Amino acid sequence: MTTSWLVTGAGGMLGQDVLAELGADPDAVVTGLRRDQLDITEPTAAHAAVAGHHVVVNCAAWTDVDRAEQAEVAATAVNGTGVRLLARACAGSGALLLHVSTDYVFPGDAQQPYPEDAPTRPVNAYGRGKLAGERAVVELMPRTGYIVRTAWLYGAHGLNFVATMLELAARRKTLDVVADQHGQPTWSRALARQLAALGRAALAGRAPAGIYHGTAAGHTTWYGLARETFRLSGLDPERIRPVGSEKFPRPAARPAFGVLGHSSWPRTGLLPLPRWEDQLAAALDTRAFAALAATARRSDGRPVT
Length: 305
Prior knowledge:
The chain is of the alpha/beta class. It has a domain at 3-160 and 184-217 and 257-274: Rossmann fold (3-Layer(aba) Sandwich), CATH 3.40.50.720. It has 10 helices and 12 strands. The protein has helices at 13-23, 43-50, 65-70, 72-93, 125-140, 161-169, 188-203, 222-232, 276-284, 287-299; strands at 3-8, 28-33, 55-58, 96-102, 145-150, 153-154, 175-178, 182-183, 186-187, 210-213, 220-221, 240-243. The strands form 4 sheets. It has a 6-stranded parallel sheet, with helices on both faces. It has a two-stranded parallel ribbon with strand order 6-9. Strands 7-12 form a two-stranded parallel ribbon. Helix 5 links the parallel strand 4 (96-102) and strand 5 (145-150). The protein is globular, with a radius of gyration of 19 Å. The protein starts with a strand and ends in a 6-residue tail after the last helix.
């Protein structure tokens, strides 16, 4: 059966991967709308965009965590109010909503992975806005709304930590990287596949509505991720030096432990995402990352001209 999908935030890193994943499905008719094509904070536009679609994948978001501290109202308008408008439009039309959220809804003070039903308590403005969006989905779409929390996302189509490490490797002999924040590096292409699979399972009645954690299995630190990126790229991981978070003060507090559990996936018949090391190896084998690694290997830390 042919199904109609809408992807919001289609110009972003995850949105582009979701479009590519759904575009390979012969049974999916896909509409992708970038930020300049759809403002989800505008009620009439959100309602019109959702109309006629079976599934909406919301990748639209305010993603600048630090700037949200100075512009919380604007950030929450996108991450909270805009999500509420999409949820209301989906509830009215009968569409399913897959909303992408974040580990930042948690305080980061746990010792074990946060289960899907763990109490939330954001430590920054970005997290508060994203939690507002989650609550809107739960309130307005208790049977047809899906919240997929992700974290430490990297991919070929936007600014991200893995690409930054490879770019800096071409210019610096050593890199200082934070070693006291723990999380789950997640490849945007792998998450896109999982979102598409969840949407299909939901349409088939195999996936109950609710909260899912779309992060890689296992966990590491930014320091560990940087070292593994170097190792897999043929660079010397000893060039990475561990430092504490105080070395890089930021306007927004970061959760020290953003590791999520994955107990919801068995209900759907879907496996959780693979381990972070396996995702990273697959990502680094793609053209975009391989080109960055090749440049870094040629330079060996000497500036590339």
